[in-house]
Structure formats: structure tokens, C-alpha cells
Backbone:
């Protein structure tokens, strides 16, 4: 077996899963920042088959068994839905979890690490940024269908894999505490960013208040709706499967749509060192709205949810800006950074996006009203 930069415990993990054939190669796969991911090729008869092995980061995800129960329930439910709607061939191209020999959705190595295995989805790929309006429409439709498929998920409420993940009030209070403590001594150099964050504190409660008032509803949501979490067919470019289900849990559909706006209708990368380059881009925003509302979930959203689609993008930009600024004030203890001001750059681009969405509110509302 050939391998490259794989941990020694990988070899014991392989034996915990009922995978036929012989391992011929293992290599790191993808560019994720949280979990360790490897592609393994198995020889089966005269051919080969690939699997994805992932070591789940239990420092970030404190309840891996609960997380994996979410994943098992969701993947099985979606496979059943796709099988009924489109047949067995389509069902084989959704995200498919391989159970361990003991029946669990994961296995643990001798060091206590948590591992899972998926079938490798062949003939498909991901992209890191939306480059066409067609891609924006496709990703919005994919996440909209994903939400609709899970509307009747049986078995009770999913586990919150990261409690208060998109609870913006909690994120704001974490920020306030970081300002008060000033652990890294950086408060003085980011006075403008701190003032900006405080000036928009009321935004943190808008969706939470609507939820408390019963005007919008909690549903099963993905919570990390970047385009690189949708696999696209190599030949047609059409969506194949939604992946990376670690943050699937109870949430608001508006969080998912807002994250799509933040990442797919923005003009530059979130770590662009020049925040002046960041603004909302209306053509992909229109494509996101059209794709999302044309999906099955479009018929489920109420008028209040539709009216807040643009605001959701602003809220997600604001929340992420808060998180980056909080980490900068605390000395860069959470996010990986490539240089000392990386988190500050990220914060500034997100706050620039907030300003841009505020300025474009009229145009964005008109797009929503026309869809």
C-alpha cells in the first residue's frame, strides 16, 4: 500500500470498517480546516473503489457520537427520498455513510480519535467560489431542496453539534467579553471596528425575536452553506449532493440563505487584505433568490422569512465579522491564521459587506419582491 502523510492510527482504523478488498493507496484529500480527510483506494476483484476517511475534530465538536447520529439519520433519510424520487442510481450518488463493524456510525482509534467513512462520490467535484450566476442558482436550489427533504425527518430534534452556532446574541456577548478583557492588548488599535460592532448590536436580536414570537420557525438546517459543500457533476455541472454535515442541526432557514449571500454574492474572499474590494454583487444575489425560492423550500417559507432574505446576508456577515474580531482581541486562539493581522483583515471585509448590503437594501428588496 502506498500512502502519503497519513497518521499511523489510520491502519488500525481501516480494520474497524467492513470494507471489502485490499487497500492500495491512501492520501490526504480536500482542503478542509477542521477535520483530517483522506481518500483510500481499495482493490476489489479486477477494479478499484474509493472511500473517504475522516478523523473528526473532537476539540471543536464536543459530542461526536451525537454529531454522528445526526449524520446517520440525515443521510439515510435523504437516500430514501432520492431513491423514491429518482431511482437507485441517483441514491448511490448522495452522501453515504459506511457503518463500522460494531454497527456504530463511527470508530475510535486507540488514542481516542473518532473516525468515519463515506463512499467516495465519483464523477463529481467542488469549487471554492461562485463564478457564474448559474452556479449561484444551482447552489441555492441544492440547499433549498436539502432543507425541504429534511422537513419530515423522523426521530425527534437533532443534536446541536455546536451550541449557539448561529445565535448572534451569544456571539455578540462573547465579543463584548473579549473587549472588556482585552487579553491580547489589541483593543486600542481596533477602536473603529469595535464601534461599528456596537452600533449594530440590535441586529443580533432581529431573527431571534421573530423566532421567539412564533413568526418564523426552527427547521433542520445545514448551517455552512458555502458552494464548496455542494458536489457538482463533472460532465453536466449540475448538483449531485450536499456534503459536510457536521453542523447540521436545528436552525433557521434564513441562516442558511444568509450564509449563501455572504459567500456566493460577495465580490472577494473574506481574507482579502483590502476591505475596499468587498461588496455585495446583485446578479448572483438575484440568482440565489431565484434558485432558493424555486426549490421546494420556497413554498414553505412564509412572508416574513421571504422579507428577511436580504437581511439574513447582512446578519451572517455581521456575525462572522464579530467572530473574527473576537478572535483577534483574544489573541487568535480559534481560527487558523497565516499572518498576525489575518483575523483583522477578515473582520474588516465582513463589516464592509455589512455596509454594502445596507446600501443595497432597496435593490435587494426589489429583487426579492419580484421573485
Residues:
Amino acid at each position: 500500500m502506498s500512502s502519503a502523510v497519513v497518521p499511523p492510527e489510520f491502519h488500525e482504523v481501516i480494520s474497524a470498517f467492513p470494507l471489502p478488498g485490499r487497500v492500495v493507496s491512501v492520501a490526504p484529500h480536500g482542503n478542509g480546516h477542521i477535520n483530517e480527510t483522506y481518500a483510500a483506494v481499495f482493490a476489489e476483484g479486477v477494479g478499484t473503489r474509493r472511500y473517504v476517511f475522516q478523523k473528526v475534530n473532537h476539540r471543536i465538536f464536543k459530542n461526536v457520537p451525537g454529531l454522528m447520529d445526526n449524520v446517520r439519520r440525515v443521510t439515510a433519510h435523504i437516500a430514501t427520498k432520492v431513491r423514491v424520487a429518482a431511482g437507485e442510481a441517483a441514491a448511490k450518488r448522495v452522501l453515504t455513510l459506511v457503518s463500522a463493524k460494531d454497527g456504530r456510525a463511527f470508530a475510535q482509534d486507540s488514542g481516542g480519535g473518532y473516525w468515519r467513512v463515506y463512499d467516495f462520490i465519483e464523477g463529481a467535484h467542488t469549487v471554492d467560489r461562485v463564478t457564474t450566476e448559474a452556479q449561484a442558482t444551482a447552489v441555492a436550489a441544492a440547499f433549498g431542496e436539502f432543507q425541504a427533504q429534511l422537513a419530515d425527518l423522523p426521530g425527534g430534534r437533532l443534536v446541536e453539534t455546536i451550541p449557539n452556532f448561529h445565535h448572534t446574541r451569544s456571539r455578540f456577548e462573547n465579543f463584548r467579553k473579549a473587549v472588556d478583557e482585552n487579553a491580547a492588548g489589541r483593543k486600542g488599535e481596533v477602536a473603529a471596528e469595535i464601534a461599528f460592532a456596537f452600533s449594530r448590536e440590535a441586529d443580533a436580536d432581529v431573527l431571534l425575536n421573530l423566532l421567539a414570537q412564533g413568526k418564523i420557525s426552527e427547521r433542520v438546517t445545514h448551517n455552512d452553506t458555502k458552494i464548496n459543500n455542494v458536489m457538482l457533476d463533472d460532465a453536466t455541472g449540475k448538483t449531485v449532493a450536499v456534503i459536510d454535515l457536521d453542523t447540521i442541526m436545528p436552525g433557521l432557514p434564513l441562516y442558511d440563505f444568509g450564509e449563501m449571500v455572504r459567500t456566493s454574492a460577495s465580490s472577494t474572499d473574506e481574507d482579502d487584505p483590502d476591505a475596499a474590494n468587498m461588496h455585495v454583487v446583485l446578479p448572483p444575489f438575484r440568482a440565489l433568490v431565484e434558485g432558493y425560492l424555486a426549490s421546494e423550500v420556497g413554498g414553505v417559507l412564509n412572508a416574513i422569512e421571504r422579507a428577511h432574505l436580504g437581511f439574513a446576508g447582512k446578519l451572517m456577515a455581521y456575525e462572522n465579522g464579530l467572530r473574527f474580531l473576537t478572535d483577534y482581541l483574544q489573541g487568535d486562539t480559534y481560527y487558523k491564521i497565516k499572518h498576525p493581522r489575518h483575523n483583522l483583515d477578515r473582520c474588516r471585509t465582513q463589516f464592509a459587506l455589512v455596509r454594502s448590503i445596507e446600501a443595497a437594501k432597496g435593490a435587494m428588496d426589489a429583487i426579492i419582491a419580484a421573485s
